């Protein structure tokens, strides 16, 4: 059984530890096996590539590297600041994430 993570694909997150401290970005991908996420514009690395169909010129390409989810914190859509996440049952009996700061349900 897979464990529940506080971050999902498409969430806006802020980096709370490491070289990119304070940067915000959107989660592009979650890697559950290693508890890591790829965040847009965060943890950039340079990759040397040979010419191929995607990069006909080849050369050095910058791309996002995975970052551990413990170094990420969700940005509350209502207030725009970082918040912790809780889980509760909504009116229809479905388990949903909510912001501990504003109490709002997170879609």
Blueprint of the fold:
Elements: E1 12-15, E2 24-31, E3 36-39, E4 44-49, E5 59-64, E6 67-68, E7 72-74, E8 85-89, E9 95-99, E10 105-106
Antiparallel strand pairs: 1-2, 1-7, 2-3, 3-6, 4-5, 8-9, 9-10
Task: Kindly describe this structure.
The protein has 107 residues and is mainly β. The chain has no helices and ten strands. Helices cover 0% and strands 42% of the residues. A hairpin with a 5-residue loop joins β9 and β10. The chain has strands at 12-15, 24-31, 36-39, 44-49, 59-64, 67-68, 72-74, 85-89, 95-99, 105-106. The relative contact order is 0.20. The strands form three sheets. It has a five-stranded antiparallel sheet with strand order 6-3-2-1-7, with no helix packed on it. The chain folds into two domains: 1-75, SH3 type barrels (Roll), CATH 2.30.30; 79-107, no CATH class.
The CATH topology of the largest domain comes to: SH3 type barrels
Number of helices: 0
CATH architectural grouping of the largest domain? Roll
The CATH C-level name of the largest domain is Mainly Beta
- Give the tally of structural domains: 2
| Overall 3D form | elongated
Helix content: under 10%
Briefly note the structural class of the backbone: mainly beta
Query: How many runs of DSSP E, i.e. beta strands?
Result: 10
The overall pLDDT, averaged over residues, is 94
For the termini, the CA-CA separation is 23 Å
Rg: 17 Å
What fraction of residues sit in β-strands? 35-45%
Strand order of the largest sheet: 6-3-2-1-7
The largest β sheet comes out as: 5 strands, antiparallel
Low-confidence stretches: none
What is the H/E order?
A: EEEEEEEEEE
